[in-house]
Design a protein that fits this description.
- By secondary structure, the protein is α+β, with helices and mostly antiparallel strands.
- It is 11% helix and 24% strand.
- The chain has 1 helix and 4 strands, in the order βαβββ.
- It has a 4-stranded mixed beta sheet, covered by helices on one side.
- A hairpin with a 3-residue loop joins strand 2 and strand 3.
- It starts with 28 loop residues before the first strand and ends in a 16-residue tail after the last strand.
Length: 88
């Protein structure tokens, strides 16, 4: 398989951690500069809020029942080069 020239400069990081109990095999963290807007967008797509942790990040559950986190980042601190953006 041929890799595009721009792919050589990309860095991919994968954090592996042990989860508590449940069926999850992959856990995603979504970083956003607007926690409320992102959790509302994800709810509109079928996710549900489970809890707010330390008044800081939100644990949610996807429609299949798998948990994931939405984590706030200060505006301008996200790596915009590889960020996925969704238009409203």
């Amino acid at each position: 398989m041929r890799r595009p020239a721009h792919a050589a400069a990309r860095v991919f990081a994968l954090l592996v951690q042990r989860l508590g109990t449940g069926p999850a095999r992959v856990h995603l963290d979504i970083h956003t500069d607007d926690l409320e807007a992102e959790t509302a967008r994800l709810e509109a797509l079928g996710a549900r809020r489970l809890r707010l942790v330390n008044d800081h990040w939100c644990v949610m559950e996807d429609p299949a029942g798998l948990p994931f986190c939405v984590i706030p980042q200060p505006p301008g601190s996200l790596n915009d080069q590889n960020a996925q953006r969704w238009d409203d």
